[in-house]
Specification:
Order of helices and strands: HHEEEEEHEEEEEEEE
Shape: globular
Structural class: alpha+beta
Number of domains: 2
Distance between the termini: 45 Å
Number of helices: 3
Helix content: 25-40%
Largest sheet: 5 strands, antiparallel
Length: about 200
């Protein structure tokens, strides 16, 4: 896809998602980041000929997102969807399978509703801030603390443990830790912002 079409397509996805949210809850929720995730999932499914990896975290199956945007986040016309060199699904506690694109809306419905419900209750802006709003503790030093929205499995780096400080937008998120070749996700969903101490009891003994 050409880069100049990305802004148009993202606007279209965001328009549909925003309308669906208003119809469901009667209120607008800033959801551009969610729209970008959905766009990348669709892009990934097309690249994989209609197949998407899914990961069972706790009792929930969620899509595994292997793509991200490359380029200046403030200039959508210069961004492009690219695949990471490798996405790790190394936590052996969780099953990994694949699903077709027609199964993804049903998989997303419940965890995405939790995420958006959390954001609806929050007074915070989802726009990135230079001020950290979370501190994530773990029992290991030197690991990369990662986080993902509740409706996906996708590694976003927060910082080195422990603790790791950074900004996470409002919504429900999972946290984990990673090193090259090793990734562990905690099953707990955290509503951000939170006044509670976030502790990731990983890796498992």
């Amino acid at each position: 896809m050409e880069r100049h079409a990305l802004k148009r397509d993202l606007r279209h996805v965001d328009h549909i998602l925003s309308g669906t949210i208003v119809d469901s809850v009667g209120s607008r929720i800033r959801s551009r980041d969610v729209s970008e995730d959905l766009y990348l999932l669709a892009h990934q499914a097309a690249a994989r000929e209609g197949s998407v990896p899914i990961i069972q975290i706790g009792n929930t199956w969620v899509p595994g997102l292997e793509f991200q945007f490359d380029g200046d986040p403030w200039k959508p016309e210069r961004r492009v969807a690219v695949k990471r060199s490798r996405e790790q699904w190394a936590d052996k506690r969780f099953q990994v399978d694949s699903a077709s694109t027609r199964d993804i809306p049903d998989l997303l419905a419940r965890p995405l509703s939790f995420f958006l419900g959390s954001r609806l209750r929050s007074k915070s802006s989802p726009r990135a801030s230079v001020s950290p709003n979370v501190a994530v503790h773990s029992r290991e030093h030197g690991w990369q603390v990662i986080y993902t929205p509740f409706y996906l499995a996708h590694q976003n780096g927060l910082g080195r443990s422990t603790p790791a400080h950074g900004f996470v937008p409002p919504g429900r998120f999972r946290f984990g830790i990673a090193k090259p070749g090793r990734v562990f996700w905690d099953e707990t969903g955290w509503d951000i912002p939170t006044s509670s101490r976030i502790f990731v009891p990983l890796p498992p003994p």
